[in-house]
Design brief:
By secondary structure, the chain is of the alpha/beta class. The chain has 3 domains: 1-36; 69-270, 3-Layer(aba) Sandwich (Rossmann fold); 289-450, Ribosomal Protein S5, domain 2, CATH 3.30.230.10. Helix content is 24%, strand content 26%. The protein has 11 helices and 23 strands. It has helices at 75-80, 101-112, 127-136, 152-160, 185-202, 223-227, 326-340, 365-377, 403-412, 425-428, 443-450; strands at 6-10, 16-17, 33-37, 69-70, 85-86, 90-95, 118-122, 145-147, 164-168, 205-211, 230-235, 242-250, 258-264, 267-270, 289-296, 299-311, 319-322, 347-353, 385-387, 390-391, 397-398, 417-421, 436-440. It is globular, with a radius of gyration of 27 Å. It starts with 5 loop residues before the first strand and ends with a helix. Bound molecules: adenosine-5'-triphosphate and magnesium ion. Residues 95, 97-103, 124, 136, 263, 265 line the site of adenosine-5'-triphosphate (ATP).
Length: 454
């Protein structure tokens, strides 16, 4: 019987087994065993000990290597990448199905193919499907090399001839070294590390497309993200035309950058005027909606937060949140109930950040409270009022970063009044003549200011 070349290793404790097991006998965790290739052990003969050992060198003698950057042909993508594509880097683009990953990278590949040798390895779609897409997008892609292959070893030769390679997708390719099916944790890990070795040894730039799981993280192990030089995520609702590309990790640039894209039948393009994308036309008419300047990446965007309240039909009230962390919503409801005596305990509460954007920063807290207070009272908030600030459990309003930038954006977008944390007021004094600034120290003060109560 031939000797097995693979083994199964527990991701949690490192236990190895020659065959797959559902439960690790060592640590007792379920479904943690992943197939791995057994690396051949290199035995050194006695007396042939290598004399050359690695030598450390002073930092001053290290040669400075300037990263060569190439434009992707898409200014928004260049911004997210930190100024362009770095040669020899590995970039992972993840996102929900149908969000536009293949579309964006086909466009990039076609642009690069004008001057470079570019290979598009399509493991998911046939070459004719890719050609059809290129034609639909009106891409001049005569020099773009296409390959429909799922076995990584078979495609290796083709990689060596290219300067740029797009792999669509990493979950669809497999390595012959493992017997597990394509897309399994072991396969994704093995394929990614093999690609990394090729990229680093030959200076080939790789773009990998990755699928995300139901939880929104990249399918495959975390190690996939460690191997990559840059990890970019596409965000946005499938039904919306605009998408946000966010850098989750970038070894050659800031992770603060985001790109805003619009999906059209001619392709996916960067948007320059994005500030009013996340506002509704009916702003200011209905109760429960308010606008907040959100700092997403290095950009400030005006985002509308909408809430809806309905009397609870059953004993337990429902709380649903899209775009704002549901746990954060529950905490803010508790603050409003306890510190501002708002009777929310018998209401089902639904919250939505417009346009499918995700508000991860605490500066949206005060706006969420304002929207909830407005919905509870049934009084609409003036459409020219914006609110931002972090809310503490004691009901105090805490200072947030980039206050000047936020007020400036409100001014630019034609807002007339901004409710902001008192501690941020000093930094924003200079805008006092051009926009009404209402500093508040407590959530209760904000509610009084909003609804003109004394
Ligand atoms: N003929 C068409 N006209 C307009 N838009 C189209 C057309 N065909 C596809 N699209 C758009 O392109 C999107 C699919 O883009 P793309 O194939 O790049 O997504 P993807 O992220 O690669 O998806 P997957 O994960 O399935 O590979 C669709 O959701 C649709 O909005
Ligand atoms: Mg695709």
């Amino acid at each position: 019987m031939p000797k097995s070349t693979t083994q199964f290793v527990c991701n949690e404790c490192g236990y190895t087994s020659p065959k797959w097991l559902g439960r690790c006998p060592d640590c007792g965790k379920f479904n943690t065993l992943v197939e791995e290739v057994i690396a051949p052990v290199q035995t050194k003969k006695a007396g042939t000990m290598s004399k050359i050992s690695s030598r450390a060198m002073p930092l001053s003698q290290v040669k400075y290597e300037k990263y060569e950057r190439v434009s992707s042909g898409n200014p928004e993508l260049d911004i997210v990448l930190g100024g362009g594509i770095v040669r020899g880097s590995l970039v992972l683009v993840g996102g929900d199905p149908g969000i536009g990953k293949s579309t964006l990278l086909t466009q990039v590949a076609a642009h690069l193919a004008k001057e470079h040798r570019v290979l598009y390895l399509s493991a998911e779609e046939s070459c004719s499907q890719v050609k059809l897409r290129c034609e639909r997008l009106g891409l001049d892609s005569d020099n773009l090399l296409l390959l429909n292959e799922t076995c990584l070893e078979n495609a290796e030769e083709a990689f060596y001839d290219a300067e740029y390679v797009v792999i669509d997708s990493i979950q669809a390719v497999y390595s012959e070294a493992l017997s597990s099916s394509a897309g399994s944790v072991g396969q994704v890990r093995e394929c990614a590390s093999k690609i990394m070795r090729i990229a680093k040894s030959r200076g080939i730039t790789f773009f990998l497309i990755g699928h995300v799981t139901k939880e929104g993280t990249l399918a495959g192990p975390k190690v996939l993200e460690h191997i990559m030089d840059a990890v970019l995520y596409f965000e946005g609702e499938r039904t919306e035309n605009f998408k946000i590309l966010r850098a989750y990790k970038n070894r050659f640039g800031s992770v603060q950058e985001v790109g805003v894209f619009e999906m059209t039948s001619e392709g996916i393009f960067g948007l320059t005027d994005y500030s009013s994308l996340f506002l509704s036309d009916a702003r200011g008419l209905a109760a429960g909606a308010v606008v907040t300047p959100s700092e997403t990446g290095n950009r400030c965007m005006m985002v509308e937060i909408q809430t809806l309240m309905a009397k609870t039909a059953y004993g337990l009230p429902r709380r649903m949140s899209l775009g704002v962390d549901p746990n954060r919503l529950i905490v803010l409801i508790a603050v409003l109930e306890k510190r501002c005596a708002l009777p929310l305990g018998t209401q089902d509460i639904y919250l939505n950040a417009m346009g499918g954007i995700k508000l991860n920063e605490p500066s949206a807290d005060l706006a969420v409270c304002a929207a909830l207070a407005s919905a509870e009272r049934g009084v609409a908030i003036d459409k020219y009022t914006a609110v931002f600030g972090e809310v503490g459990l004691t009901g105090e309003v805490r200072a947030v970063g980039y206050a000047e930038k936020r007020v400036n954006e409100c001014l630019k977008m034609g807002f007339k009044r901004v409710i902001l944390p008192e501690k941020n007021m000093k930094a924003c004094e200079k805008f006092k003549d051009r926009i009404e600034l209402v500093p508040v120290a407590y959530v209760s003060r904000m509610i009084k200011a909003l609804f003109a109560e004394s």
